[in-house]
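During the reporting period the student researcher (J.K.) took over the structure-prediction task from the postdoctoral fellow and processed the backlog of single-chain submissions. One of the processed entries is reproduced below for the supervisory committee.
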Amino acid sequence: MKLHKGQRLESGFTVLDIVDLAEMKAAGVWAQHDCGAQVFHVVNDDSENLCAFAFATTSRDSTGAAHILEHSVLCGSQRYPLKEAFLVLAQGSLQTFLNAWTFPDKTVYPASSVNEHDYFNLMSVYGDAVFRPLLSEWTFMQEGHRYAFDSDGRLSITGVVYNEMKGVYSSLDTYAHRWSVRAVLPDTPYSLESGGNPDHIPQLSYEGLKEFHRQCYSPANCRIFLAGNIPTEKQLTFLNDRFFSSIQSDAVSALLPIPRQVRWSAPKEYRIPCPAGGDTKSTVFISWLLCHATDSSECIALAALTEILLGHDGSPLMKALVESGLGEDISPVSGFESEIAETLFVVGLRGVSDEKQVEALILNELKRLADEGIPKEEIEAALLYIEFSQREIKRSGGPFSLVWMRRCLRTWLHGCKPWESMLIGPALQELKQRIKENSRYFESLIQHYLVGNPHRATVIVEPQEDFLSRKEAEHAQAMEKIRQEHSTQERQSIIDANAALEKIQGQADSPEALASIPHLSRSDLCPDPVLVKRRIEDLDGVPVLCNELYTNSISYCNLAFPLDMLSPQDYPWLPFFARAALAVGLPGMNYAEVSSLLARTVGGFTALLHTGSPVPSPDNPMISTPLGELDLAGRDWIFYRLKCLDDMAPPALELALRLISEADFSDTRRIRDLVLEMKNELRSSLAPMGHAYASGRAARFASPSTHTGETWSGITQLEFVHHLAALDTGEVAARLTQLRDAIISGGIIACLTGSAGALAANGRLFARHFSRFGSPRGRKDPRTFGSQVGVIEPFVCRQGDSREVFGSPSLQVGFAAMSLRGSAFDTVAQAAESVWAHQLSTGALWEAIRMKGGAYGASASSDGMERCFSFSTYRDPAPLRSLDTFTSILGSPQRDDGDLEKTIIGRYARETRPRTPSEHGFADFLRFLSRIDDDCRRRKLERIITMSAGDITAVRRELAQQTSSAAVVIAGMKDAEQAAKALGVEVQALPV
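J.K. obtained the following structure tokens:
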């Protein structure tokens, strides 16, 4: 039945409107149920359907009620009374995305799947979770906060969200981000912490959590976003029958407007102390309050203005800040904030010595631009960026419909029609018309919103070396005071409550509860992988892979140069080279001019390092190409990845060629800025990415490639970048020039992805510009690797004990990792390892380390190419305990961690997750270079689908024999010292 505006459906929904979403190749259906819940469905041909339940959850305080509730509702509901319904879903669903997010003013529960039956399973479980959660008190204790006594009798606070937010509040960047919003919105809920401030989280009571749910999670306060090809009426009927049919009216919490900030007549200034984390200088920025998010046309104009001012290295405000010498690099909070009810523009510097000059520099540059005018080419570049972003088919960690969802919710939850902030085309056309009518349109925006706007705040975020130690001491003192004030009965009550919680956590869900979660069966799984159409051509002596795919008139070019003909001493330099090669000038053009030209020509141009082992093939290590057999498998590469509109391919490829072969590193000031920028980024990445550093370090002896990977992106690189910052910039520039010339002398292989017409045209362009490089030359053999900065030794695939502990005063929580020798690639055993890793991540590890231990995350992974099986934890309050848990799980008898069939389905989903055309092309390129053919992919899927419990038992026993293998801990100094003592090693200080 065709729906029409005003139609009343038997499901209790009324169709409010139907709109044409031409730019999305879709239609939009907007409906409202009698109970007040609204639905917006983006109807298109995509079989990857998405559903998302969204609630307005404006904070009343900084206890993190919204965040704790987001965790808690997924711990069992009336229809699905399991301890971790989310986990059971993740374990046995074909979901392509499954998560939940707490924003400053909303909480969203999105899920997607390519299987219709599975999709409705996801909708059923998520809907029951949000509308009818059990919200047991033990859930609040586990996910929120609780008192506990340690082995020495000291009182402490733990809980998943509490520990997560302690990790969040460990860095300067967190404080900068929080205050970029709070400073200009002090009289609104945005001045509060929706995620929860660790100092305030313990103030939330169990009753308070339940009341927050009662107020915010009513159907009238719910907006449901749908996208995909399942008929709208079928989904509305399901929603009514499953959730809304028994609700006649909803008097509680219809959407309430968020109070607007009263505008100031004069600017303000804030000075905020924060953890140092290696930072010795302040971050300084200005934050402006702009328009309301519901003004979509104005928001697009301000987004374009931000791109003009800060979009690339040569943008006028960006260039003025970086070249001023007042700071080490641009503040990471800089940009346009449009996810909240009132939009902001933020810009500043970090690593600042003279704080007062930063404000004057920013205001003077903005005034100069308003008076003298913006270069026309910068406006051209900004409009191209918006057009390209509108056209490109991409994923955002999940289906592209997640991007639509976020755009939609920006204003839908503030009273607008759901499509008003989702569509870019109408607002972009209006913007172009404004520019046509007023040649100084953007200058007028600068004057109105920035130069002449008194509602701004200058924020100085000051790192203090003793900040965290003082906080810890104050916390310990407060805990001791509470402990002393507690009666013996109260202390026993805490002990009993934790014992009761551990008992519940240790109990398995009943078979009846597990059976309540709907799931698919093995018979629903297909062993045939998605095939990518590929042909290999000889373009004037260079092998080129061509993938003919629909890309919406965008061309993708991946240009690969081998690196393993370089010397071992060169390897630590390559991450900085990959960054600097595309961020400097060309002969006759400075870096700002090149950056501006790139912005006007391409949709993106990046450099990526890649290392990986090949599929074993002792009989023939070569790969067949139209040029004959070439030595390509298992090599190290630098990929130059270019994307552009089809009609911009000629200038884009020409510019790419020039940067690859002529990048000019002679501007030593620019080199110095890039070094400091990289050092700051790596240093700031420790708190949010400590698990990646720990895992990389633990796995570095698994294979030559894991060793190389750690050199490029691990603790070794963190150490090297500090070494790099101490070098003379002239020496650095000379080394980069040598690397550039050496790399292009190694030959090239490429991959082109696009339409048939684009492939033909781009093939001719490629042959004209890049055939001079020839095909890839042979590698140096044997390979050697840098074990540390300045010291080179031959690589030896070490096995056995390798324990390390790294300490940092900037961490309030820690990370642990362990790496074991895995099974050979393309075997039943390796497939079994991948299934067992999924089973552990959604079973034993989650229960022991997240539920019981309070860590935010714990996982296992299997890398068949590198023969590496790894464990890791994330934001872990007890990393040493987690290492013991890894060993315990390896050594314990096989337990029932849920239905094996569910685990297989979940693992299969990870193997077959959808990809965009660009991702398909690049993945096919990597498979070609590693000798992974389609038969190999099919065998793995078949092995996963037919996996037996005996297969998993066999690999578990094999891995259990390696309990002395590599273990790494990264933590705050106190926990690091404790871990080092237990492991019998010395604490190594992380470079800051």
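The committee noted the following: The first helix runs from residue 65 to 72.
J.K. will present the remaining backlog at the next meeting.
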